[in-house]
Design goal:
The protein is globular, with a radius of gyration of 16 Å. It starts with 9 loop residues before the first helix and ends with a helix. With 215 residues, the chain is an alpha/beta fold. Helix content is 38%, strand content 15%. Strands 2, 3, 4, 7, 8 and 9 form a 6-stranded parallel sheet that branches. It has a 3-stranded parallel sheet with strand order 1-6-5.
Length: 215
């Protein structure tokens, strides 16, 4: 039975058209993947993630929690200095469907003070309709084509990698996590993904800000 969280079906994407699920290149022959990392930056995870990306000359997009940026500005600066994109992941990792609209939107705006980006990913991938409509006015909401489930400690590192391999195609937005729960799974699945798909001729790119502003 397919896991609809790992690879959301077309019917789900159809009903949430305001979200960006995948970035298919104009040139159909171009092989490109978009790695994304949620929840950081933190000193126990992010530097190692950046080291792996640098090893394979890969760029990625980090959806940062504002309070973590406040606590670890030097790591956030390293993300930017190494050519990666960043996005807003709220200030306190709030789950939209459990939070009053104004409180949620204010939390996003608070993170805006530290994260200069028009990209936004809601924690847990869910928001209320009003929250979505408000945030779509001045930013792009990025969901995913593939969720590795690296955060789930019931899932093995090999299964996380398999979630990528079962669903990968050019333009896929792939979610990893930048938190301690994901450490073992993320390190294995990320390096294997970088290794395998670099050999297969894929390029790993950061999600661009300007292109999405015009979309």
């Amino acid at each position: 039975m397919p896991d609809f969280i790992v690879h959301p079906p077309e019917i789900v994407r159809h009903f949430f058209k305001r979200y960006t699920w995948k970035l298919v290149p104009e040139n159909e022959d171009e092989r490109v993947l978009y790695l994304t990392f949620d929840d950081g930056p933190i000193p126990e995870m992010t530097p190692g993630t950046l080291d792996l990306l640098a090893k394979y000359d890969a760029k990625a997009t980090f959806f940062c929690v504002g309070d973590n940026v406040r606590k670890y500005p030097e790591i956030y600066k390293r993300i930017l200095d190494e050519g990666h994109s960043v996005g807003n992941h709220t200030y306190n990792h709030l789950q939209g469907i459990l939070t009053r609209n104004e409180e949620y939107l204010e939390n996003v705006r608070k993170a805006d003070e530290l994260i200069d980006s028009n990209l936004f990913r809601p924690p847990h991938g869910r928001m209320k309709r009003r929250q979505t409509l408000e945030l779509c006015k001045d930013r792009k909401i990025i969901l995913w084509d593939i969720l590795t489930k690296d955060y789930d400690q019931r899932v093995t590192p090999a299964r996380c990698l398999q979630n990528v391999m079962d669903n990968v195609s050019t333009g896929a937005i792939i979610v990893f996590h930048d938190n301690l729960k994901a450490l073992q799974n993320q390190r294995y699945a990320l390096e294997q993904t970088l290794k395998r798909y670099t050999l297969d001729g894929y390029t790993f790119k950061a999600i661009p800000y300007s292109k999405l502003l015009k979309a």
